[in-house]
Amino acid sequence: MTADPMIVSRHLSGPTSSTAVLDAYTESVMNTFGTPKRVFVRGEGCYLWDAEGRRYLDLLSGLAVNALGHAHPTVLSAVTGQIATLGHVSNFFATPPQVALAERLSRMTGGSEARVFFTNSGTEANEAAFKITRMTGRSKIISTQGAFHGRSMGALALTHNEKYRIPFEPLPGEVIFVPYGDAAALASAVDPTVAAVVLEPIQGENGVVVPPEGYLAKAREICDQHGALLWMDEVQTGMGRCGSWLVHVDEGITADIVTVAKGLGNGFPIGACMATGPTSRLLGPGSHGSTFGGNAVAAIAGLAVIAVIERDGLLDHATALADHLATAINGLGHRLITGVRGRGLLQAVLLADPIAAAVVDTALAAGFVINAPRPDLLRLAPPLIISSAELDSFIGVLPSLLDQVAEATQ
């Protein structure tokens, strides 16, 4: 087979300015995300470059995905080497990378008999988990107010935001929402008819909401009392994002179901649904499937990410930088900053006024990528490889960004 390095580039030979690309985007891509704010063409480390050559410090990591930043050499080498050797063979067959990653993830759960079902995303991992809960013979699920578990019909049924839910109702399942972090409310809702309780150890999309100490342990106790499964959605919090492989395991808890994705592949689409103990045996041949899930290239990307995080001590690094970031931002003493919350490198800057969206735009113009999941809150989820100096470059200009927005809205 003859290689033709130009065959793909011919399809990219048209106008490449931001304006031209965005015009084409409007005509060819469904309008589910609104108009993109930038056209990015290159990434390296913690930085992105747009079509006009402007550089940006990426403090969002593609929504907590690029744990090792952009174009990480170890991930790049692993993926290109694997796809040059063996790419896709379907799940009628096994590959060494698939099995090796499954073994590694199983150990992370801290549970016995842990097994993995591979997917292409966090939403798909949650869909697999949803199906596992049905195999208990019960159908009721307890979720929480402010929860976000995905946009597919099953995952959406577990997601609290009415803006996402109402257009697609009726949604599957009998789902009850209780206040997040309220152990008494959870205890009142769980009874012998409940199949599972699904929780994020920290609510990311709801504004990096950290529950009270002991809440997750209490949830485990409540589930055990009534024979319900405890399902931990670590799609955003897991894989080192919060300074540990899995937040709930770091707190001494073993869940029956765990879902991960985002940071696992450093941008290569992969997710996983893990189950422990008897729960790991509930799905059998024919009960679920995925064409692409766990293919050798995705699996090798996951193994490479885990290897680099371990080799470079990035779990401890994320924890140390969390302390540095919170201390530095609180130390600014700015009138519009009311606090910082989060864990590891999933952090929120709390604002006194609902100006977060405008601050995001102002930061982007200044060369920083952040986002605003709530009107009065900025979310920071930088690559785990980021340095304190790179973080300080943003913290140093944050007061001026806030002042610019405040002046413009007066």
What does this structure look like?
It is a single chain. This protein is α/β, with parallel strands linked by helices. It folds into two domains: 9-66 and 313-409, Alpha-Beta Complex (Aspartate Aminotransferase, domain 1); 75-311, Type I PLP-dependent aspartate aminotransferase-like (Major domain) (Aspartate Aminotransferase, domain 2). The chain is 37% helix and 17% strand. It has helices spanning 18-28, 61-64, 73-85, 96-108, 122-134, 153-157, 162-165, 183-189, 215-226, 247-250, 296-311, 314-330, 356-365, 388-409; strands at residues 40-44, 47-50, 55-58, 115-119, 140-144, 174-178, 194-199, 229-233, 257-260, 271-275, 337-343, 346-351, 368-369, 371-374, 377-380. The strands form three sheets. Strands 4-10-9-8-7-5-6 form a seven-stranded mixed sheet, sandwiched between helices. A hairpin with a 2-residue loop joins β14 (371-374) and β15 (377-380). α13 (356-365) packs across α14. The longest helix is centred in the last third of the chain and has 22 residues, at 388-409. It is globular and about 55 Å long. The N and C termini lie far apart (65 Å). The model has no long low-confidence stretch (mean pLDDT 96).
